[in-house]
Specification:
The strands form 3 sheets. The protein has a 28-stranded antiparallel barrel. It contains no helices and 39 strands. By secondary structure, it is an all-beta fold. Helices cover 0% and strands 69% of the residues. Among the domains are: 109 residues, Immunoglobulin-like, CATH 2.60.40; 169 residues, Porin (Beta Barrel). Strand 17 and strand 18 form a beta hairpin. The two termini are 25 Å apart.
């Protein structure tokens, strides 16, 4: 892929009693991949930089970074291990991390991926990026059997104990052929062990045999996800495919499909697809093409027709059509990716002839690296549907960002996004609102002292029967400095004002955090404590909320990739509402987490939490919640 820089802004706004505060948001940058060209059966390393544009620091050991991989239709395929990060990242600061991915031997062509960050209770994701994979080139040193096993177990008061399994195997055979098997399943006390997905296939130079759950049955507009049996063969420059299956999780012969494609030139493919139900009353056909102008530029499209009867007795037939087109280009400094898809109200699938699927969606992403120290991006997505006459839903999102990384000067990130949602009175829920947010962050290391500042301004407008307008301005300031070899002091101060422009009321939120970290054994064992006090109050004195959080954490790092942590969190909250008593509540949280790499291929992660309280003081019904999450990963 060469050296590319991709910036993506993701915002998560949390609302409580009219108060909106951007706690977690990020700009994702893909700096480069190693090696530049991805090839099946080999490892690729993504060099990623993630800038904290939120109002809260990312605490070491409490978040992970990973990558999710999707096929050409953006259907989920797999993901990398969640790599736990052991670095505190204050607002406006950036995290640099490398994520490696062993590309399966059966991958070939165009794929998509997203960078993800997982916190204890939420996750942030980037937009889709393109990953082009060269086909497997077998060499003697390539392992004959590769795969991965992931086992998860979780249990708490909210859900019953659940065990899940994900298994993937690829066996390389002579003459460039391979055998692939994958499955996933889960088991609970009330559900017998069941497989939710499975897939087995054999691939050679002239023959493909597969059975199970297909992410793409034939093509995106004719048949995507399905379960069945598929046979494909290649005769010179012609590929032929036949399929028998169902759109449900059964092996019923509900659907029959045929497909074929011809390589008119080395960079031009033309294909045809046809699917019908077993009664021959409902069908869909399409023509598709893919044109590679160069290794860095591609264009693809598909046009489909459908014919469906809503029941077997009626003779009236409903016909419809659909269309999609995609284009992409990338170079050392530029990434361009766009798509457009539209289906009319009468377009239908043979598996669900009674369901209308009329919608329109276009998606555009542009990134440009102006020079080594400045990059910018623009993203726009619009989706609208009309399932029934007069029943309309629309959604649109646009965001733009700039990042500056000048040597010996403060790093600066600027971002703006706007989103709109609309559904008319014929829909189940009436929606008509707009949200726009502007944010920037500044980070500057002065020798060993780290300074950071972030600012965001968000406006929300609801134009339904009960209109509302809110404007939120937030600022955070952070500084951390070492005191000698073993001690690090830090402090954060944040302010946020949310104005209700209709009720003419303002809710003000202020918080301050003091932190101390004592390095008992530098880079091995540390003890840290943090004290945070925050207050929510409106100018009319109808709401007054005070929350004090005290944290004590003991962390041990046997190696750079392994971690053991024991923590205690005490939360004291007072709530006051005019005309009522002031309810208070205390909550204690004792937690333990460990991430340990047993070998280069095996890792295990354990998280345990015990929470007491959370009920108003004086309540006769106490509460206690225990949770445990255990994950084992093995890649070979």
């Amino acid at each position: 892929m060469g050296r590319v820089v991709v910036l993506v802004l993701v915002f998560f706004i949390f609302c409580k009693a009219g108060f909106a505060f951007s706690e977690n948001s990020a700009i994702f940058r893909i700096i480069t991949t190693t090696p530049p060209s991805a090839q099946a059966g080999k490892e690729i390393v993504f060099e990623i930089e993630i800038t904290n544009t939120g109002s809260e620091a990312w605490v070491a050991g409490e978040y992970s970074v990973f990558i999710k991989v999707y096929d050409t239709n953006k259907s989920y395929l797999t993901e990398t291990d969640k790599t736990r990060q052991f670095e505190d990242i204050a607002p406006a600061e950036a995290l640099a991390v490398n994520i490696d991915f062993d590309i399966p031997a059966d991958y070939s062509g165009t794929y998509h991926y997203r960078v993800g960050m997982e916190f204890e209770e939420e996750a942030l994701f980037s937009h889709y990026f393109i990953l082009r994979v060269l086909p497997l080139a077998p060499v003697p040193e390539v392992k004959k059997l590769t795969g991965s096993i992931q086992i998860n177990y979780q249990d708490n008061q909210a859900i019953e104990p659940t065990t899940s399994l994900n298994l993937r195997l690829v066996s390389l055979l002579p003459v460039g052929s391979y055998l692939r098997f994958s499955t996933s399943g889960r088991s609970t006390p009330s559900i017998n062990p069941e497989l939710s997905n499975f897939f087995i296939s054999y691939h050679s130079q002239k023959l493909d045999l597969s059975a199970g759950d297909f992410a793409t049955g034939l093509s995106e507009l004719t048949l995507t996800r399905s379960r069945g049996v598929k046979v494909g063969t290649r005769l010179g420059e012609i590929d032929l495919v036949g399929l028998v299956g169902s759109s449900q999780k059964t092996f019923k012969d509900d659907l029959y499909g045929l497909g074929g494609s011809v390589y008119l030139r080395s960079n031009l493919t033309l294909g045809v697809n046809y699917v019908q139900d077993k009664n021959g009353q409902n069908s869909v056909a399409s023509l598709d093409t893919e044109f590679a102008l160069s290794p860095e530029m591609s264009l693809s499209g598909e046009y489909a027709w459908s014919s469906c009867k809503e029941d077997e007795i009626e003779s009236a037939t409903r016909t419809g059509n659909a269309f999609r087109i995609e284009a992409s280009a990338y170079s050392e400094k530029l990434i361009l990716d766009g798509s457009y898809e539209r289906t009319d109200q009468n377009f239908c699938s043979p598996s669900m002839p009674d369901v209308s699927t009329g919608y329109e969606e276009y998606d555009f992403f542009l990134d440009y690296s102006f020079f080594d120290y400045m990059s910018g991006s623009f993203y726009y997505n619009h989706y609208s549907d009309s399932f029934q006459p007069g029943d309309i839903f629309r959604y649109s999102l646009a965001d733009a960002s700039l990042s500056f990384f000048l040597p010996k000067l403060p790093s600066l990130s600027i971002a703006y996004d706007i989103s709109e949602n609309f559904s008319n009175e014929d829909s189940e829920v009436l929606i008509d609102d707009t949200t726009n947010t502007f944010a920037f962050g500044l980070s500057y290391p002065i020798k060993k002292v780290r300074l950071s500042i972030s600012h965001s301004r968000s406006n929300y407008e609801d134009r339904t029967e009960f209109p509302s307008q809110e404007s939120t301005v937030s600022n955070t300031y952070a500084v951390s400095a070492p005191c000698g070899k073993y001690l690090v002091l830090s402090t954060h101060y944040g302010i946020s004002d949310t104005k209700d422009l209709i009720a003419l009321n303002t809710i003000r939120y202020r918080y301050v955090t003091w932190g101390v970290e004592y390095k008992i054994i530098p880079d091995k064992l540390s003890l840290s404590t943090q004290y945070k006090i925050g207050r929510n109050k409106d100018i009319e004195n109808t709401v007054d909320n005070r929350k004090v959080t005290t944290t004590l954490t003991l962390s041990y790092y046997p190696t750079k990739r392994n971690m053991v942590r024991l923590g205690y969190v005490l939360t004291d909250e007072d709530n006051f509402i005019i005309g009522a008593n002031a309810p208070t509540s205390d909550r204690e949280n004792i937690y333990f987490m460990s991430h340990y790499n047993l070998t280069e291929e095996q890792s295990i992660e354990l998280r345990y939490s015990l929470i007491n309280g959370g009920e108003p003081t004086g309540s006769t019904t106490g509460s206690q919640n225990q949770s445990i999450h255990l994950t084992y990963n093995y890649r070979f």
